[in-house]
Amino acid sequence: MDMIWKATFDSYMKLLYDMRPQGTLPARIQEFEREFRQTAEEHAGTMDIAGVLARTGLQQKYNSLYVECQAGANAYVDFDEGRETADGSPRLFNAAKEQRLPTVHEYIDTYRAVYESIRNYDRPGTARAYQALFDVEKRTDDLIEAQMIIEREHLLVKLVTANYTDLVEEFSEAIDPNFELTSSGMNETFAKYAHAASVDEVTYMSEIAQSTTVDAGIQIQAKMSMLTNFNSLLFAWENNKRRIRTGDGPADRLAMSMVLVRKKVRDIYRFFSEDLGLTFDEMMKRPFYRIMLLQPQGLDGLWRLKKVMHPANLEAIRYILFEEILSEKSMEEILLTPQPYPYYEQIDALRCPGLNTEYEAIAAELNRDLKYYKNAGIGGGGTGEGAGKVSGPGKLSGKLFGALREKTPAAAPGGRFPLRALIQQTQNITGMIMNTGRERH
Amino acid sequence: MNGKSDMERLYELNELRASLFDPEISPRQHDYYVRLNAFYRERGCSSVAEATEMIRGTPFYDGLTKAKMMDDTSLRAKAMREVGYEDAAKIHDERLKKLDTQGAVYAYTQEWLDDFQRVERKVRAYAAVKELFGRVYNGYIDLIGNPQKAHRDAAEKRIREGLQAFRAKGMDFFRIAALPAMKRVTMLNDAGYDRFLAYVRRIADGAEVSDDDVTATADEQRRVAAWVRENMSQVREAGRSETWKRANCIAVPSKSPGGYDFIAMKEAEI
């Protein structure tokens, strides 16, 4: 069993055995232990432990055993009235032994025990949610009233959703909400879970997300292919035209290329507008497509800030698309008509070798105070400053963003963040969060 | 509290809990609390301590655990059905029946574990098929929009390999494509989806499509090239009034109507 699995295995089993199960429970826990051990061996090296436990049903089995250990008629731990445990840990109330109802403190201790088992893995929102629950005993010493407060204020559901609320807040300020490549995964998963009205709803949503995140991944790849092709064609059209007019290169061959490019733009625009219902006007209404037409390059790990072409190019693209390429004008007429809107090409590294570095420094400064980069311990720009400072071993944020950081392409010379890697990375985050969601209930 | 007896307040608590379980999402847990109150009333329960004792040995004692597990399983089945994974949904249906007849004991059997793994295998298989389908679709997009022969050849090859991979799995691409879940992945409308399938059908039937565009434009290319050679001075003259520059800036997401602010603009001559 590898170290990460062993640590998880030990903490799960310790929690069950520490409750001193009785009756039929010990045998069932031993059976669970055997299955857990076997699963751990089969999945050695897999980082996604939560996902494996959820998918194999072990997590649900564990949850049931845990609940039974706490509340089952034959499986209570001893409760020494009026005495603190030696290590200060919460004690579980033994109704069968006590022959009385628990006090509010004893009732809430059940949740303290759960919290003790997860506190090292959780985020501040979860800690706050548990604290709100623990504070109920300061508000009343009446057991029924305490339960009414817990139900009315949805304090139990918040134990689950608080983690997602935290993630949404942290992640959404670190990404570009318009940029579907990074936002779609979050929108399909924890942004929905955060607003769930019950734990059952989270279950339902995470099951749906098993399919929708796969779909979203495929759709992102398709959009990337379409828009990359479209941008390349538009650039080729403009670049060829400029070179013909400025005498830069063999004009006849450049013109031949323009003829083929024109056909391909017509094909792909027909595909956009007729097959997908995505007209140019529709693209202009949606920030994602507007920015994609400016050929973005990420200046930080999540592409919140992007180096782009001049935004005036959008007007130039509209002109060349409708007044040139899609029009009925002949190539001769097009080549003899001056273009009224300038199309700005990108500044190349030869002319401005320090531009990328300068932009990445600006990005790092703009991202500096974002929680995401602080928690992940990575720089908010291409300089990669702070890399390696994951916030404490074992913390969920550390695991999540530590894994994220590993997947984040290191700032290459010139500081580029490849788009394909970004897509893979966001899918990894989504996968981890999905599995985290599936684990938690 | 408020002059109410503990028992009256227990009824209120159970009513509150029932109301918080949406009957559409968690019907069994909702019903559990409704029926529990009815049970107490029927038995004339007079105190909370008596209520706690009264349910021992009745289905109410572990009824909530069973209701929770059944609601959970039922929701998983519903979700699988909604995304079009009917066979995975059926396994959850079977699990639901087992829970109903065996109770929570079922959760501690090897069968429980096996059933979960069966669902997992189905879900993984769907994801793998979708990803394979997505590869074929991407090849189609490249064939539509990429003018470079090497890329078009590669895209055509990817489609052929994708079709072969479906055959290797014992599946027919076009039967899979008939599933609504597959069409949904492509984002295409009906006419667009038909065009996509017809294009792939041509390739499946042995047509070589990567040179289609070159062939279709060859005459026009020759004609325009000849015209440009003869009219170079006019073409250059037309471009004299044009501005050709290079520029870049940083896009910062904002609440502006276009969704971005553009900062740090840099311009350079071509």
Helical coverage of chain A, percent range: 55-70%
The total count of helices of chain B amounts to 12
The N- to C-terminal Cα distance of chain A equals 25 Å
Q: Strand order of the main beta sheet of chain B, please? A: 1-2
Helix content of chain B: 55-70%
Mean pLDDT of chain B: 92
- Tell me, rounded to a whole number, the average pLDDT of chain A: 79
Shape of chain A: elongated
Number of domains of chain B: 3
Note the total helix count of chain A. 22
Strand content of chain A: under 5%
Low-confidence spans of chain A: pLDDT under 50, at least 5 residues? Answer: 72-84, 383-416, 428-441
SSE arrangement of chain A, N to C: HHHHHHHHHHHHHHHHEEHHHHHH
Please state how the strands of the largest beta sheet of chain A are arranged side by side. Answer: 1-2
**What's the multimeric state?**
heterodimer
CA-CA gap between termini of chain B: 82 Å
Could you describe the largest sheet of chain B, including whether it forms a barrel? Answer: 2 strands, antiparallel
Compressed to H and E, one letter per element, the order of chain B equals HHHHHHHHHHHHEE
- What's the number of extended β-strand segments of chain A? 2
Shape assignment of chain B: elongated
Class by alpha and beta content of chain A: mainly alpha
Could you walk me through the main structural features you see in this protein, from its secondary elements to its overall organization?
The complex is a heterodimer of chains A (441) and B (270). Chain A is mostly helical and 441 residues long. Among the domains of chain A are: 214-336, no CATH class; 355-418, no CATH class. Chain A has helices spanning 3-18, 25-42, 49-56, 58-71, 95-98, 104-118, 124-134, 136-139, 143-152, 155-174, 180-188, 190-193, 199-245, 251-275, 280-285, 287-292, 313-325, 331-336, 355-367, 371-376, 396-407, 419-439; strands at residues 297-298, 306-309. A two-stranded antiparallel sheet of chain A has the order 1-2. In chain A, helix 6 (104-118) packs antiparallel against helix 7 (124-134), helix 7 packs antiparallel against helix 10 (155-174) and helix 13 (199-245) packs antiparallel against helix 14. The longest helix of chain A is centred in the middle third of the chain and has 47 residues, at 199-245. Chain A starts with a helix and ends with a helix. Residues 72-84, 383-416 and 428-441 of chain A have low confidence and may be disordered. Chain B has 270 residues and is mostly helical. Chain B folds into 3 domains: 6-122, no CATH class; 126-208, no CATH class; 213-269, no CATH class. Chain B is built from 12 helices and 2 strands. Chain B has helices at residues 6-20, 27-43, 48-54, 63-82, 86-102, 110-145, 149-168, 173-177, 180-186, 190-204, 212-230, 232-238; strands spanning 245-253, 260-269. Chain B has a two-stranded antiparallel ribbon. In chain B, 31% of the residues are buried. The chains are: A mainly alpha (441), B mainly alpha (270). Chains A and B meet through helix 2, helix 4, helix 9, helix 13 and helix 14 of A and helix 1, helix 3, helix 4, helix 6 and helix 9 of B.
